[in-house]
Amino acid sequence: MEKYIFELTMKVRDYECDLQGIVNNANYQHYLEHTRHEFLHTTGASFARLHDEGIDPVVARINMAFKTPLKSGDEFVSKLYLRKEGIKYVFHQDIFRLPDGKVSLRATVETVCLVDGRLSDSPLFDQLFAPYLHG
User: Fold this and answer.
1) Residue 74 DSSP SS3
2) What string of DSSP letters covers 8-57?
3) Which of 102, 124, 126 is nearest to 51 (CA)?
4) Interatomic CA distance for residues 118 and 97, integer angstroms
5) Sign of CA dihedral 38, 28, 125, 5
6) How many Å apart are CA 75 and CA 72, to the nearest integer?
7) Candidate list 18, 74, 100, 116, residue with the active-site label
8) What pLDDT shows up at residue 122?
9) For the chain, which residues score pLDDT lower than 70?
10) Rounded to an integer, what distance in angstroms lies between the CA atom of residue 12 and that of residue 7?
């Protein structure tokens, strides 16, 4: 069983769907990013303030496995847990359709930090994320 540390419930909007009536694959990245941003806010950090301080977390790699498509009006919950691997923070993110809980997407998002424009470890993120890190 995954040890999720954060979850966010959302709803599919009509304009996120393609001609097949399902969520366009690119929109899942928006869902994943919004979930990570909301998680970051719960730690007391904000992207704007971090950027002003010269700290820019960026996505280095995304792997997404599409399972059950979402359709217009579907509600879903986006969940995540976090690991640190070297200088990368790896977000394991899963999206579940509601109310049946079917897996819609499984994703791994590798992020790194640029500190003053250079790839670097981030002591700030180490501190913010310490209570949430898995193995």
Assistant:
1) coil
2) EEEE--GGGB-TTSBB-HHHHHHHHHHHHHHHHHHTT--HHHHHHTTEEE
3) 124
4) 39
5) positive
6) 9
7) 18
8) 87
9) 1-2, 134-135
10) 16
What is the model's pLDDT at position 19? 94
Res 65: pLDDT = 98
Q: How far apart are CA 134 and CA 63, in angstroms?
A: 19
Please state which architecture CATH assigns to domain 6-134.
Roll (3.10)
Sequence-distant (≥ 6) Cβ neighbours of residue 79 within 8 angstroms: 2, 4, 6, 7, 35, 93, 94, 95, 96
Beta bridge partners of residue 98, listed in sequence order = 75
Q: Does the active-site annotation cover 18?
A: yes
105 contacts 69 by C-beta, under 8 angstroms: no
β-sheet bridge partners, residue 120? 113
Instruction: Please state the length of the chain.
Output: 135
* Per-residue pLDDT, 133: 85
All residues at 6 or more sequence positions from 124 whose CB lies less than 8 Å from its CB, including other chains: 45, 50, 55
Residue 89 has which token pair?
């923070």
- Residue identified by tokens 């002591």 is 123
- Between CA 71 and CA 97 the distance in angstroms is 10
